[in-house]
Amino acid sequence: MDQATIELLARRAGLDKALAEFPDDVAAAAEQASSALARIKVPTDPRAEPWPPMRAGSGL
Amino acid sequence: MSDLHWLTAADAARAIAARELSPVELMTALLERIARLDPKLHVFIRLDGEAAMDAARAAEAEVTSGRLRGPLHGVPVGIKDIIDVAGLPTTCHSKILAGNIAAADAVCVSRLRGAGAIVMGKLSTHEFAIGGPSFDLPWPPARNPWNTDHHPGGSSSGSGAGIAAGLFPLALGSDTGGSVRNPASACGIVGLKPTYGLVSRRGVFPLSFTLDHVGTLTRTVADNALMLQIIAGHDPLDPGSAATPAGHYAAGLERGVRGLRIGFIRHFHETDTPADPEVTAGLEHVARTLQAAGAEIRDIRLPALGEFGAVNRIILQSEAWAIHGPWLRERPGDYGRLARRRLLPGAFIGAGDYVQAGRRRLEMIAEVEEALREVDVLMCASAMDPPSRIEDAAETERTYPRQARTPFNVTGHPALAMMAGVSRGGLPLSLQFVGRYFAEATLFQVARAWEHAAGTDEKHPPVL
Prior knowledge:
heterodimer, B: 464 residues, alpha/beta, Amidase signature (AS) enzymes
């Protein structure tokens, strides 16, 4: 992720203060997120559901 | 009685009930030990010694009058400082929550007190159960009693170090990516992450709603089963609580492993994240020992460890961002550097990414379930390395993700970590057993067989 994209996403998330005071931490966080996302095999079956599911009738 | 600090919870409770041991005598011995050792170990964030001693006196008076509150009458317990204890601060080891006093006991604490246990105080953790070991927080990090130059694991650091050092026989921790099993591994004790939903999380500060588990840390397998028996059970006010009734966790403790099928996940430590040779040798020794005791050992393959870790991180950091986003926007400097770095990634993960991780999670659950139809229990590494030097930040950063615990937060299966041996450097080596949903009794049965064969319950840090 390039620096301009990191700054754009960080500001969109309201992280102006963190960006000003801890720019290295914000950049490292963006890198961590990209790295984790790249390691997942996204299910190819469009019907694959996420876990946990919505379960009607089992709420509080 | 001598060496009261090494008494198991079960033996202490038995001796108190038989009036062979006074709860005051036990508490006095432990408080003296804490006064001597905790300045080096930093296990406690808040020791509640006076209240603990008052409770011990009350417990003694009750025993004298023939009244026992329950199976832990007069037994001391330590509580990780993300878990509420009424009237005490819950700081999560963070400046963010300094002065946050809990109004009520967490359900798990309340159940322990109902069984007669006595709360000694609040224990060191990684900041918000994710950022540590850190030296830029209001309290220092806990240290490993096997060698205080080393990390005791985390995030339930004080829980693990305190149990191993003989400061208390029982401790509560929490586990979102391995935070009970990591200190259990690093400190050579027994740590259980139960099935997701078996133990109420109400009153526990959340890190990740669908990955958080409350867990138990003890010196013996039997104590772990005893502790789980007390805290397990449905809580209608915890949205993740399972409706399944608690089991009989100590029922099969001494049955041995003859006839059980154990699936050994070798690829985790052989190819996915190659382990230190001493760890590998330790795991093979455990497998041979259990085989000699009558178990059948089979090789099992699951998805790669790195992908389990990635799914865990995306879910954890997304859910944690929902909790910490407001503070990270307004008070980023009030977090320690490690917590800030580990919590900020949630700002860069999209809603679609979170759902994709959830979809992959269901596939991973199906694969572990399939494996557990073939075998009764799974066995694998816990930590790939002996505990790192606590002040060597680079070494800690390198070894921290080298573990096989996150898969079972993703899937919610019960997982127990314990000692596999001791390294040439005198530090604990570890292993992990994983069971079917709600089959903690079988996990304890296998873990007890290994404990009995290896005498791991008799091994204590030599310097203490």
